[in-house]
Every structure is written in C-alpha cells, then in structure tokens.
Specification:
Layout: E1 16-22, H1 25-30, E2 37-41, E3 47-54, H2 57-62, E4 69-75, E5 80-86, E6 101-105, E7 111-118, E8 125-130, E9 135-140, E10 152-157, E11 164-170, E12 185-189, H3 196-214
Antiparallel strand pairs: 1-2, 1-12, 2-3, 3-4, 4-5, 5-6, 6-7, 7-8, 8-9, 9-10, 10-11, 11-12
Keywords: Calcium, Lipoprotein, Palmitate
Organism: Ciccaba nigrolineata
GO molecular function, one term: phospholipid scramblase activity
C-alpha cells in the first residue's frame, strides 16, 4: 500500500479481525463502568493491537450511549498506531441532525477516514469514507439488533448496496469464551486486499456500532 501508516502493516494480510473486550474484575463485581479495554486479534486469536478508551467517569455513567470518546489503539510494542475520535452526539434516529459521525486517525493526528451514520427509518446504515470524505463502502444492519443473544450481522456493501463484500458481526454465542457474559466480541470480515486505512476505519465502525446498539443490552443480567 502506498505510504502505509506505521503499524498498519499488521492489517495488510488480514481478512478477519476479532475485537474482544476485557471486562475488568472490579467492573464485573461492582457493576460500575471503568475505562474499556480491548484486544484486537487475528483469526488465529493472536493479539495484533490493544485498545483503551479514554473519557471520564461522568461521561461513562451519565451519558453512556451518547458519550464522546477517544479510543487509542496500540501495537504490541505499545506504539499508538490508530486513534478513534467521536464527539458527543445525541442518539436519535428521528432527527437527522443528530446522526453519528466518527473520525479514525492513523497515524494519530492524520485522518485515515470517517464512519458516518445515514438516516434511514428502518435500518441502521453507515457510510465508510476515506480521508478526503469520499464514500468508499456502506454498512447496513438488520432492522432489529437485539437478536435475543443470537449473532447479529451488519453487512459491508459496495456503494450501490447491491453486493455484499464482508460483515461486522456481534457474537453472543461462545465464539470467544469468557468468564463474564457481557463482553463485546465482534468479528470484522473484509476482503484481504482492502486498503489498510479502510480496515482501520472498519475497526472504528465496530466501536461505534457497539456503543450505539449493544452497550446497554446486557444491563441488569
């Protein structure tokens, strides 16, 4: 890839990316949210990156689904290679002015692309854009995202939405075993030759989808 951002070479040969949230013991026992930490793995389960969400406790507990956040993604040497930024936005499908948008940077400080929510009365829809805000791909979710703990697929499509080239999946069913059930396990499947910057943006899309549709789905269990 021309002028590949440092650290993204790990994504070059990947067509499957797994994102696994690490549930803090304190959070599991006390039920209070601490900063989210994630492992980003390849299809063999080997960690490629780890990610930490930055925000304050006020944001996490009072503004949960609409909160702003910055997620810093580092490689195994601790070098930050991707930064995901999302401003505070109201979460309402009825008001297009409140549609979600997220910026992905790689290296940090340099825009790699954007995830933009599209207004639709029935389906969750997003557009993946490159650093110049040109549309590259679409993401189309199902009409119901609470699938009673069944896997939920958001399809990655060409811009005309006719052909499906991949998917972002929320796995409920023991895909990645963990002591605690309310962990975010996502899988991203994309063409292996997709631009690495767009693969990085897809990781950002995964975090946005988790926040918008799944973060509070297991509260109280």
């Amino acid at each position: 890839t021309h002028n590949m951002p440092p650290g993204l070479e790990y994504l070059n040969q990947l067509d499957q990316i797994i994102i696994h949230q690490q549930v803090e013991l304190l959070e599991a026992i006390l039920g209070t949210e601490t900063s989210s930490k994630y492992e980003i793995k390849n299809h063999l389960g080997q960690r490629v990156y780890f990610a930490v969400e930055e925000n304050d406790c006020f944001d996490r507990n009072l503004c949960s689904p609409i909160r702003s956040f910055t997620i810093r993604i580092a490689d195994n040497t601790g070098r930050e290679v991707i930064r995901v930024k999302r401003p505070l936005r109201c979460n309402s499908c009825w008001f297009p002015c409140f549609l979600q948008e997220l910026e992905v940077q790689s290296p940090p400080g340099t825009v790699a692309g954007y995830v933009v929510q599209n207004w639709d009365p029935f389906l969750p829809k997003f557009t993946i854009q490159n650093e110049s805000k040109e549309d590259v791909l679409k993401i189309v979710g199902p009409c119901a995202t609470c699938g009673c703990f069944e896997d939920v697929d958001f399809e990655v499509k060409a811009l005309n939405e006719m052909s499906t080239i991949g998917k972002i999946s929320k796995y409920w069913s023991g895909f990645v075993n963990n002591v605690f059930t309310n962990t975010a396990n996502f899988g991203i499947q994309v063409p292996v030759d997709l631009d690495v910057r767009i693969k990085a943006v897809m990781i950002g899309a995964c975090f946005l989808i988790d926040l918008m549709f799944f973060e509070n789905s297991l509260d109280g269990l």
